[in-house]
Amino acid sequence: MVRVLKDEDGNVIFEGSAELEEIPKANIIITGKTGVGKSTLINQIFGEALSKVGTGRPVTQDVTQYTKPNIPVSIYDTIGLELDKERQEQTKSDMSGIISDKINNPDPVDLVHAIWYCVNAGSSRFEDFEANFIRYFRSKFEIPFFVILTQCTSRKKAAELKGHIVKERGLDVEVILTLAEDYETDAGNITKFGLDEVVDATVKRIPEFVENSFISAQRVNMKLKHEAAMGVIKKYVKATGFGKLVRRIPLINIGAAFDDAAAMFKAIGDIYGLDTNSGQVFTIVSEVFSKDTVWSILKCTPVIGEFIGDEVNGTGIGSLIKEAGTMYCQAVEEVFRENSQKELENVQYVVKKLKEHLRRIVNERIGSSPD
User: Domain spans of the chain?
Assistant: First the structure.
């Protein structure tokens, strides 16, 4: 659905899609020996029992692809790499085939974007075949590759194993220490750690076109989600011609101009994994942001040169979009923090909560504005 905003002379002022573009899935291969905790790592980072409730599709004899609707990530999970050389070679061949097939397919976005190799730090063992396995993929493919030390109940031993991998084995690879779940000992409880580092490191090195996909799917780093949402707002503000005085919109059309923000709202919701469609977002816009409400927001938004007679220029519309996006982002974050994953999967419940939070935030904003 394309929304077009015109001035009184019929000139197109803004044209854009009211639908969020289908964002590509981030494809991650996760591999390692049996018992290293791959499933726990996946479930903790993505907040979903992907390997249990997701759709598992055997890609090869040794690799299964896990996906779930509305989560923009695909996990390619290999069977455990055991000491059997034939099995190691088969897994290596299967992984290479998947990577090569995606490189050669006609979709330039559908690639393998990162590889996570998991090692159980509790065992303090790193086998020769593992080092050779990593060297092979590091030399053959230009894909971000991470060694993730799991079950790091002793940071000292984990740090020693990291040193062994990097220095003694001479592997040029980023190694990250993690404990995916809280661990209870006789001396006390060890709080989980390292998951945000895995997310941060992955986001920094995967292609830009799947950054938001990965950020949307992960559930451990809220700062990244917030930054991505602010980036969406910035993009839509720019699309309005923010700061330009040449285009003017009659005040009578201010509500129509605001409707274009619905696509921005959907994009923000998707970053937090809220499965609201465009129709539901437009419902929120129409019910919460009445013409009078939008007018009140615009009046209390401190930007110089908004009004020229009975018209508002690009600076004023940009200010309005920025203010609305910031308020909507706050509402989304509150709903995301205050509800369980199961509740967030109930779309009607999410829409109801978004309306409640957004109404309160808007009323507070208008009420606190200077007369």
Answer: 23-217, 222-366
d(CA 158, CA 176): 10
CA distance 63 to 38: 13
The residues pairing with 250 across neighbouring beta strands, listed in sequence order, are 311
Give the CA angle between residues 109, 95, 166 to the nearest 5°: 100
Residues across the chain? 371
Angstrom distance (rounded) from CA 267 to CA 231 = 10
Domain 23-217: homologous superfamily in CATH:
P-loop containing nucleotide triphosphate hydrolases (3.40.50.300)
- pTM score of the predicted model: 0.83
User: Among positive and negative, which fits the CA dihedral 172, 177, 178, 179?
Assistant: positive
Instruction: Place 3 in a pLDDT band, splitting at 50, 70 and 90.
Output: very low
CB 32 within 8 A of CB 43: no
* Per-residue model confidence as pLDDT tens digits over 18-43: 344 567 899 999 999 989 999 999 99
Contact 151, 122 (CB under 8 A): yes
pLDDT per residue over 60-83, tens digit each?
778 899 888 778 999 999 988 876
